[in-house]
Amino acid sequence: MATRAQGTTPTRVRGHPPRAGAAVPAAGAGEVVREARGARRRRETRARLLDAALKLMADRGMDGVAINEITEAADVGFGSFYNHFESKEAIHRALTDLVFEEFANALDRALTGVTDPAEIIAASVRHTLYRARRDRTWALFLLRESLSSRMLTRGLGLHLLRDIEKGIGAGRFKAEDPLMAFMGLAGSVLAALSIEVQYGEAADTPLPPELRSAVGLPSPEFPERAATTMLRFLGVPPAEARRVARMPLAELEAPRATGD
Amino acid sequence: MATRAQGTTPTRVRGHPPRAGAAVPAAGAGEVVREARGARRRRETRARLLDAALKLMADRGMDGVAINEITEAADVGFGSFYNHFESKEAIHRALTDLVFEEFANALDRALTGVTDPAEIIAASVRHTLYRARRDRTWALFLLRESLSSRMLTRGLGLHLLRDIEKGIGAGRFKAEDPLMAFMGLAGSVLAALSIEVQYGEAADTPLPPELRSAVGLPSPEFPERAATTMLRFLGVPPAEARRVARMPLAELEAPRATGD
């Protein structure tokens, strides 16, 4: 296989682990420490850039944000942006991967061993809404990108379609038209996210009082109410839907480090 | 009833009907023709500005668009923008009114006399999706604004909530939690709009072939499939949902002139 280029220095590492079988140059202890510190700093810079871009792009969309705004918000020199990302499109792609793929994979890992498709869907919906409650920027980014991009071909969407089909196959769900059921569920999650962001406990503009009491918002149990209704949409009977949507929730691991 | 204001000249008409009680100047036939022509030109200019702003804002959002881009696209002098709108926010507000309020009212007018809440909801969903199919810009604007703004307090959303509550009251729908049912239906409509725009017959990026056949898209009957599933979500039995979602559709009147 390919061997690593001679003279690779920390600043040229591009976020990939060294390939197996690569020749390692002999190095003194001092060099190892320096390399470790450089790699850590590199990771931190990358995380700061991603963080700043997430906030700005959640607010204004990719087109509304310039690279120098990202580097200023991240407190990083303009030029070093390009040590981490080739372009604005590249950092945007890294963010959509984080939000749509990484989060879907974290859900999968948290739900390893759960076999009931109803429980998988309810837990996924609740985790998504609790995450939105803790991290409004994340939710705004997801909302902004969700309906405008390739919803059907991305991690979060594909996993949902897979879980619905599994439930139909197992006789747990009733849905004559799986694509349409997926569409309804995906849309429901997004509408729930939007309601949580707009009318939840940390909302900018609370609902008018008469509407507040009519719809019962904000509601601490909102994620469970949403999950119950989505199971009902899939034909799960009322009492069973309420029970499954209130089962103990396995903890979701912290978001994966975005450094590498 | 109202008589026209003294000395009102076409260029000063600001899109509001003249106040009641104002005096009308005696005018020769030539003046009447000139006034009519001026008013028509004014209306056309306003419509061109709205049209251009809708396209630009559907694409980039209000923040991503400058007034001079709107006037250039509309082929109108920069200054005359202000004869029609006070600000960028004002033209954006006019557009959201058109899309969220006017369309909801047109649906109401088309459905006058229909009493079955299932038929009302199915027809509204189908009209919305057929409109999106004919007018991609309209759909993109609606999608962009829907989840990011006050979904629950706007015409289109409020009408849907009203129709769901009517159906629950009449025993036609089963939903234990009306707000959540609304949320799911609203989200389903938006997801359907997004699918129509992304994967419909006029889509930019067709689905990969394997997914295409798996989900059956694009589909000429997509609006009917979507409406069927939404009725199923509300507890309408399968055969009945299919029947109601395929009833003859009353024609929707052309969008109201945006001139005044």
Which strand-content bin applies to the residues of chain A? under 5%
* Low-confidence parts of chain A: 1-24
Mean pLDDT of chain A: 81
Biggest sheet statistics of chain A: none
Question: In terms of structural class, how would the helical and strand content of chain A be classed?
Answer: mainly alpha
Determine the CATH topology of the largest domain in chain A: Tetracycline Repressor, domain 2
Shape descriptor of chain A reads globular
Tally the helices of chain A: 11
Largest contact between protein chains?
A: A-B, 51 and 51 residues
CATH architecture of the largest domain in chain A: Orthogonal Bundle
* Count of β-strands of chain A: 0
Q: What's the CATH first level of the largest domain in chain A?
A: Mainly Alpha
The secondary-structure element order of chain A is HHHHHHHHHHH
- End-to-end separation of chain A in angstroms reads 22 Å
The number of domains of chain A: 2
Instruction: Give the % helix of chain A.
Output: 55-70%
Oligomeric state of the chains in view: homodimer
CATH H-level name of the largest domain in chain A... which superfamily?
Tetracycline Repressor, domain 2
Radius of gyration based on Cα positions of chain A: 22 Å
